[in-house]
Amino acid sequence: MTAPAVPQRLAAPAPGWTDTVDVVVIGSGIAGLTAALRLREFGSVLVVTKDVVASGSTQWAQGGIAAALGPGDSPEDHLQDTLVAGAGLSDPAAVRALVTEGPDAVRDLIDLGAVFDKLADGDLSLTREGGHHRNRIAHAGGDATGAEIERALVAAVKRADDIRIIEHALVLDLLRSADGAVAGVTLHVMGEGQLDGVGAIRSRAVVLASGGLGQLYAATTNPSVSTGDGMALALRAGAKVRDLEFIQFHPTVLWLGKGAKGQQPLVSEAVRGEGAFLVDHDGNRFMQGQHELADLAPRDIVAKAIMRQMLATGKDHMLLDARHFGDEKWRVRFPTILASCRSHGIDPVRELIPVAPACHYSSGGVWTDLHGQTSVPGLYACGEVACTGVHGANRLASNSLLEGLVFARRIAAALGDDLPDLREPADDGRVPGLVDADVVPELQRVMTVGAGVIRSATGLADAGDRLAELIRQPAAEPGTPSWEATNLATVASALVAAATAREESRGSHWREDHPDRDDAQWSGNLDLTLPGDGTTARPATAFVALKEASEGK
Q1: In which band, very low, low, confident or very high, does the pLDDT at 134 lie, cut at 50, 70 and 90?
Q2: How far apart are CA 85 and CA 81, in angstroms?
Q3: 321 partner at 20 to 30 Å CA-CA among 82, 92, 287, 328?
Q4: Rounded distance, CA 402 to CA 383, Å?
Q5: Is the CA virtual torsion 410, 414, 416, 422 positive or negative?
Q6: What's the pLDDT at 260?
Q7: Could you give the CA distance from residue 382 to residue 378 in angstroms, rounded to a whole number?
Q8: What share of the chain is helix, strand, coil (3-state, %, to 5)?
Q9: What is the distance between the alpha carbons of residues 443 and 34, in angstroms, rounded to a whole number?
Q10: Is residue 240 very low, low, confident or very high in pLDDT (cuts 50, 70, 90)?
């Protein structure tokens, strides 16, 4: 199977205005704002964000940020837990950078103004989540860690009058020089920003920190802005993406009924870290015996166990029991989740919480080296849009905020040492196109059924065929809905190609027709690019690249 052809460039009006800065940062979560705050020391910085600056996935992070900050813990322990969760595909050097630089990065975040929960003696209050053998999750506001981190970063950026921000802007494509290097970006400001319409920003470097792709699926924990824009932009620019098949489905997302679509409320893993447990509809604790950590097993293990139990019992959700917490613990430790549950008619103090897996996080993304450099000169990436090598086949809980923090700092250090010269944009001849925005609901259904938690050759082939039909439906005119639809279609086609190629089950990639992990054939990473004809790599081609990676060539 060949993945369906996708546009090589987004059709859009010619830029009506231009500007020039040293670095464009795309995204305003923990990764983007950390990069901006550090890059301002080396040149002019422009942050472009799709909504208001405080929007995006960071603010929704409940559980916390993982780092070896407590007594008895160590970066080596954190490294081992991360490598185990990554199921053989994490880059040990990237993980070591994460865990050794992480504690100081968190302390700097505290110095910046982020207020984390503390014990009576003043030490950080640390909890545990799935896959961790130590209490190392720092949290804020009980279960509002992401919101507190985002608050502190936004405040710091707004104090920095040398960082410019354009809100309500969708970045369309990279401007490239004649030799394929970054020369800037084109973007569309959606009526409420500082400028209007399509424009061009020339820059010496671009930092992608645009978040994930959760809107590929009918149900996700991601906000509506998570339409894979950064990954699609990078693919169209010729960048390499890695391990896109590893989509993490969070096991405990509040189940709102069969017809629920879009962003769904998360029930943080920290709830299980504090002693909640999963049961089926007969009250059986089905995680017992599944893993040494039972209900605190890595997320892929728990999500698969829930799916198996749902299939075996014919139920469309399972149940989480945290009634023994009592009213005070719920109010103090998990106020956000408590309010969310009650707003949907569920009182977790007295009732079981209905939960089911939903798309949560992309462990793969745009490939980078240890300093955030992608395969396109001048293009850097960090946060969920990137594949730094940390997560491998399955992200360890609460490593995402830390990864965005640590690798944004690494990018700033690298660019501080060697900021590229400003290059002249050139017409690279890429063929423009657009996909009709009306296909998005069907695309989400296709991805949920064919490339969701459980996958097979037949289901993926059907998904690929249907995607090809959807992509052939052109948009009548350019605009945000059709640009987002094209980005979703681009990333969906790459994901299906990758999931088809990997004929094994590993981490968060579960093939029911290849149920076992196969280290002999699949112990390497899978890379894809978008060739000039707009198709992603055939599985056979991807397999050759994978074999070379696994043999250390």
Answers
A1: very high
A2: 6
A3: 82
A4: 9
A5: negative
A6: 80
A7: 14
A8: 35, 20, 45
A9: 34
A10: very high
Distances (CA, A) of 299 to 129, 130, 250, 509: 10, 7, 6, 12
Is pLDDT at 540 greater than 70 in this prediction?
A: no
Q: Which residues of 200-222 are buried (b: 16+ CB within 10 A; e: fewer)?
A: bbbbbbbbbbbbbbbbbbbbbbb
Instruction: Give pTM, 2 decimals.
Output: 0.91
Is 117:142 a contact under the CB 8 Å cutoff? yes
Residues 353, 341: contact at Cβ < 8 Å?
yes
Which residues, in sequence order, are CB contacts of 52 under 8 Å at separation 6+? 167, 168
The residues, any chain, with a CB within 8 Å of residue 413's CB and separated by 6 or more, are 38, 371
pLDDT over threshold 50, residue 538? no
Q: Cα Rg for the chain, rounded, in angstroms?
A: 22
Beta strand 277-279 with 318-321 is antiparallel
H helix intervals, 418-479:
440-450, 457-471
2 or 517, which is more confident: 517
- The residue type at 483: W
DSSP state of 173: E
Host H or E run for residue 402:
helix 399-417
Count CA atoms within 13 Å of residue 500 on its CB side.
28
Distances (CA, A) of 300 to 99, 133, 180, 310, 318: 22, 17, 38, 15, 16
Q: Give the separation between CA 219 and CA 125, rounded to whole angstroms.
A: 32
Q: CB under 8 Å to 550, separation ≥6 — which residues?
A: 521, 522, 523, 524
Question: What is the residue type of 357?
Answer: P
Given this model, what pLDDT does residue 408 score? 98
The residues that are catalytic are 299
Kindly write down the DSSP assignment for every residue of 200-248, as one continuous string: EEE-SEEEE-----GGGSSEESS-TT-S-HHHHHHHHTT--EE-TT-EE
In this prediction, residues 387-398 reach a mean pLDDT of: 94
Position with higher pLDDT, 347 vs 224: 347
Quickly count: other Cβ atoms within 10 Å of residue 528's Cβ: 27
pLDDT digit string, tens, across residues 452-462: 998 999 999 99
Name 188's Cβ contacts closer than 8 Å, sequence gap at least 6.
Answer: 12, 169, 170, 172, 197, 198, 199, 480, 483
> Per-residue pLDDT tens for 58-94?
776 677 999 999 999 999 999 999 999 999 999 999 9
Residue 468: alpha-carbon gap to chain centroid = 25
Tokens representing 225 are 């802005």
Per-chain mean pLDDT for the chain? 91
Q: Say how many CA atoms lie within 13 Å of 298 toward its Cβ.
A: 20
pLDDT score, position 8 = 92
Range list of β-strands (E), 269-330? 277-279, 318-321
Instruction: Record the tokens describing residue 9, joined without a space.
Output: 């460039």
Closest of 398, 408, 291, 412 to residue 68, by C-alpha = 398
Q: List the structure tokens of 2.
A: 């060949």
